[in-house]
Amino acid sequence: MHGGAWNIPNEAIEACRSGCWRALEAGWEVLKNGGEALDAVEAAVVVLEDDPIFDAGTGSHLNRDGRVQLDAIVMDGRTLRAGAVAAVERIRNPIRLARRVMISGEHILLVGAGAEQFAMEQGMELCAPEELVVPRERELWQRARSNRLTNRATGSLGRSQHSDDDVPCNLAPPSSDVSTGTVGAVAMDSRGSLVAGTSTGGTFDKWPGRVGDSPLIGCGCYADLEGGGVSCTGWGEAIMKVVLAKSAVDMLRNDSRGAGQGPAAEEALPQKVARECVRLLAERVQGTGGLILLDRQGRPGFAFNTPRMAFGYVAADGTFVVSA
Question: 271: buried, middle or exposed (CB in 10 Å: 19+, 13-18, 0-12)?
């Protein structure tokens, strides 16, 4: 699982590690008792969505209108079925709604009011939009709004630390000091099913209605049992350009077919692919971010080119490895 790749400040590290640990516990509890990968991914991501330290669910960044708009996706690597939602404002845990779309919906991606209408028809409870807002994010938004008003009054063309009014977001990455994080999880169960999921509040001060990489198949998330499962985090506009999650799965598939260099080389394959994908992101589109993955044998890999990334995995002996 991961909780976002950015310049995590020292004072937030312990909270990020604690959140990662609890997400691993929730997902692993499902798997060790013989549960399904889909349930494990949902359980882990819900913990992260409910933790205000992460940019997903409660505690997400506010857009320029001062509202939270959430995106999420889940994908089954066995069937290639997927469900996703975007720009929802009254869903506390969008990963749960994404799952409903995958299981019960006739479409793959639902957005905004239509997604919330589907949630109600599925018996899901809606929350008030303000319940997703935490004081930290309201204060950041008010600061950004003040900067915009000052810039307009003075005719300034400069960018504030937290705003990209004057430079289109597909041309310049956000500051690494502001979380561009997303949360996600990948799990393989005892039956060999492989599932990946991603959830986010998106970039800080984003344009209303902006949808990033997270809910898009192949960009912020992808799972195919022939290759592996991936969840990405970072600057969405760059991740979309290189279809990062699908690129990672394709590399896993192709490299595993060409393997033959012994167990050590095969063991290193997931990590090699993760690093190669981050290199692609940086060199081809000057993007920042990271990803986690499991190959088709359930071996983990991770990489990032930001100062830090919150992530964790369950090692082969059942121990938890957590970093931030």
Answer: middle
CA 267 to chain centre: 25
Dmax of the chain from CA atoms?
A: 65
Q: The tokens of 1 are what?
A: 């699982």
Q: How many angstroms separate the CA atoms of 162 and 158, rounded?
A: 12
Percent of the chain with pLDDT over 90: 84
Beta strands 70-76 and 82-88: pairing type? antiparallel
DSSP secondary structure of 147-207? HHHHHHHHT--PPPTT--TTS-TTTSPPPTTS----EEEEEE-TT--EEEEEEE--STTPP
Report whether 247 contacts 280 (CB < 8 A).
yes
Encoded tokens for 228: 């592996």
Does the pLDDT at position 165 exceed 80?
no
Our answer to whether residue 150 is catalytic in this structure is no
The span from the CA of 299 to the CA of 188, in Å, is 9
CB 97 within 8 A of CB 91: yes
Domains of the chain: 2-132+170-311 (3.60.20.30)
Say whether 94 sits in a helix, a strand or coil: helix
Structure tokens at 272: 């090699």
Which amino acid is present at 69?
Answer: Q
Per-residue pLDDT at 148: 85
Structure tokens that stand for 290 in this block: 């990271």
From the candidates 58, 150, 180, 182, which is the catalytic residue? Answer: 182
Measuring CA to CA, which residue among 35, 66, 21 is closest to residue 310?
A: 21
Distance CA 128, CA 197 (A): 24
The amino acid present at 321, given as its one-letter code, is V
Whole-model pTM: value is: 0.91
Residues in CB range of 241: below 8 A, 6 or more apart: 284, 285, 287
Q: What is the pLDDT averaged over residues 60-67?
A: 97
Question: Any bridge partners for residue 221, and if so which?
Answer: 217, 231
